[in-house]
């Protein structure tokens, strides 16, 4: 990538829960405007890392920097959007009311608020369901609403933990279309996944296994380097079985 500017710097990050070391000396740069995928099996440490990048958790040692500021930093909260793995929604409220609640938190008010709510619901194709209570939503609809909430305040960095889990292939494609659109607008996206075909859609990937970053590169580079034809095989070749 030409003229790449790092907006996320992970420096010697380790994390332990008691005696269990979950991240081990992770070093990584993520560049402005790229879609960066963190790929690894369940329990590899992906969520633990992205939680730190979103300011929700701290490392045992090492530092994370976002826009050159050491995390966690409250100043950055408006510049980062985070979608957790499990949906944090108010079930008894409608989608609109959920969005209004989060919009208020981000200081979005009046017409700007209602406009933005409409825009994000259109993007995730839920506009027709905006007034329904969340308790009537399917799992996939809840995921899409969580995505809409993460997009509300137009963050420069969007961190998505398994964004398309429980979403059918057709909608998954349209959500990836939305990701590319955001990238075109200059947003940096960090996406965790263990779906291999999704990994291929990222600009660059970090392969993570048992808390260690075992390789970083474009999908093409990773395949070339391991002389394989799929990300799955490349992952295995790097010892990520
Ligand atoms: N708060 C916690 N206390 C103790 N152990 C934890 C805690 N959070 C995570 N872990 C452990 O850290 C390891 C990594 O978990 P993490 O959720 O980061 O993995 P992951 O790669 O995101 O997996 P998945 O794809 O299943 O979400 C797991 O063994 C998990 O049990």
Automatic annotation (TrEMBL):
GO terms for molecular function: ATP binding. Residues 8-235 form the ABC transporter domain. The keyword Nucleotide-binding applies. The keyword Coiled coil does not apply. PROSITE patterns: ABC_TRANSPORTER_1 (PS00211), ABC_TRANSPORTER_2 (PS50893). Pfam families: ABC_tran. Keywords: ATP-binding, Nucleotide-binding. This is ABC transporter ATP-binding protein. It comes from Lederbergia graminis.
């Amino acid at each position: 990538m030409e003229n790449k500017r790092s907006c996320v710097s992970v420096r010697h990050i380790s994390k332990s829960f008691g005696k269990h070391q979950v991240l081990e000396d992770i070093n990584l740069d993520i560049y402005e405007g790229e879609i960066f995928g963190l790929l690894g099996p369940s329990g590899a440490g992906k969520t633990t890392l992205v939680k730190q990048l979103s300011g929700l958790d701290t490392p045992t040692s090492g530092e994370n920097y976002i826009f050159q500021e050491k995390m966690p930093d409250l100043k950055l909260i408006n510049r980062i959007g985070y979608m957790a793995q499990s949906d944090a929604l108010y079930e008894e409220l409608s989608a609109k009311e959920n969005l209004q609640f989060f919009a208020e938190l981000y200081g979005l008010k009046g017409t700007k608020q209602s406009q933005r709510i409409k825009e994000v619901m259109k993007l995730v194709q839920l506009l027709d369901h905006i007034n329904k209570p969340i308790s009537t939503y399917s799992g996939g609809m809840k995921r899409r609403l969580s995505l809409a909430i993460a997009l509300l305040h137009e963050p420069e960095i969007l961190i998505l933990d398994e964004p398309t889990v429980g979403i059918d292939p057709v909608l998954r494609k349209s959500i990836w279309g939305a990701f590319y659109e955001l990238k075109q607008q200059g947003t940096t996206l960090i996406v965790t996944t263990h779906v291999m075909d999704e990994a291929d859609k990222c600009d660059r990937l970090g392969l993570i296994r048992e808390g260690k970053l075992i390789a970083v590169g474009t999908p093409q580079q990773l395949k070339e380097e391991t002389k394989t034809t799929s990300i799955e095989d490349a992952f295995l070749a790097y010892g990520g079985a």
